[in-house]
Write a structure and sequence with these properties.
Oligomer: single chain
Shape: globular
Strand content: 15-25%
Distance between the termini: 25 Å
Largest sheet: 7 strands, parallel
Order of helices and strands: EHEHEHEHEHHEHEHEHEHEHEHEHE
Radius of gyration: 22 Å
């Protein structure tokens, strides 16, 4: 395409900041923001709505919409799909490659925001609990909380976010255990993090926080058996992916006092409506602190991920390659008609 003609970029996310818009426009892009209501996300748009919105788009900055083979087949002009986030289980990576397009994620943009969120959930569970609800009922009796200071924290998945959590925990003089299928022993020594197997982490930790990707072998990593290994005074934190935890088993464990509580930013019901009653039951429990998959959604975090997504879009439209860590599929040079 002629570099001088506008490259059309569609953003199907709210909270797209002025600086990222200005950057795209300075690179010769014509930017449109999808008209989403306050309570609507692009994951609520069906395939026909997306096809209509993206009909003349060269690039798509997407949040939680499903990127399917059928959708991509109906968008021959589209060159790049840039996720404003790091998870991509809703992107059909093979279909992106087969269609000759590029898909990217915004690596590094929201790490700090999610790490902060995990710590906030630990503090809320240990110190706040249902205190406000009791005060609203007129009960001002002092409820005893639990310190995060010098507790044992188990981090499952020690990537960028997990390491961010570990750094923050140093300020609490916490003992940090970590489980990873590929331990970085040098990092562990430098950071004061002790790698252990999952069983030991579950048994010894006062808080277990999940920061692993959702893969075939990590689905339901925390099931009924895993929950029974945890201390009855321990808390589970999940700011990663809903499928890492068997929510029905977690609900039963919380009701039975198997563990003390849970901080949940993600739920199985986000992708499977059959789990909606389970989510609602979890939300009703006094020992659950919950947020609506918003761990990465701070003003600063979204500004960072917006800009990374925008930079990936510009790189592809210019015929360049985005940072390797951001590319999840690159189908350029793939010509299905010649196969």
């Amino acid at each position: 395409m002629n570099r001088q003609s506008p490259r059309k970029v569609l953003v199907t996310q709210r909270f797209f900041d002025p600086d990222s818009l200005d950057y795209l426009r300075s690179q010769g892009c014509e930017v449109s923001i999808a008209p989403l209501s306050e309570r609507q996300g692009d994951g609520d748009l069906d395939e026909e709505q997306l096809l209509a919105l993206l009909a003349d788009a060269d690039a798509w900055i997407v949040g939680h919409a499903w990127v399917t083979a059928r959708l991509l087949a109906g968008l021959p002009r589209l060159k790049v799909i840039a996720r404003r986030g790091v998870g991509y289980e809703r992107v059909n990576v093979e279909a992106v490659r087969a269609s000759g397009k590029v898909a990217t994620i915004a690596v590094g943009g929201n790490d700090a925001s999610v790490a902060d969120h995990a710590i906030a959930m630990m503090l809320a569970l240990g110190r706040l609990g249902e205190a406000k609800a009791r005060m609203v009922r007129g009960d001002w009796a002092i409820a005893l909380g639990r310190d995060l200071y010098r507790k044992t924290i188990g981090i499952v998945g020690l990537g960028r976010i997990g390491r961010g959590v570990a750094r923050r925990l140093a300020g609490f003089d916490a003992e940090v255990l970590a489980y990873s299928p590929n331990p970085d022993w040098e990092y562990g020594l430098e950071a004061g993090v002790r790698y252990v197997d999952l069983d030991r982490l579950l048994c010894e930790s006062d808080y277990v926080t999940l920061h692993a990707p959702l893969l075939e072998d990590t689905r339901f990593l925390i099931d009924a058996a895993a929950l029974r290994r945890m201390k009855p005074t321990a808390y589970l934190i999940n700011t990663a992916r809903g499928g890492l935890v068997d929510d029905r088993a977690l609900l039963q464990a919380l009701q039975d006092g198997v563990i003390a509580g849970a901080g949940l930013d993600v739920f199985l019901s986000e992708n499977d409506p059959l789990y909606r009653p389970t989510t609602e039951a979890l939300l009703a429990l006094p020992n659950v602190v919950a947020t609506p998959h918003s761990g990465a959604s701070t003003h600063e975090g979204l500004q960072r991920t917006n800009l990374i997504a925008a930079q990936c879009v510009v790189a592809v439209l210019n015929g360049d390659t985005p940072p390797a860590s951001c590319v999840i599929a690159d189908g350029r040079g793939h010509f299905p008609s010649e196969e």
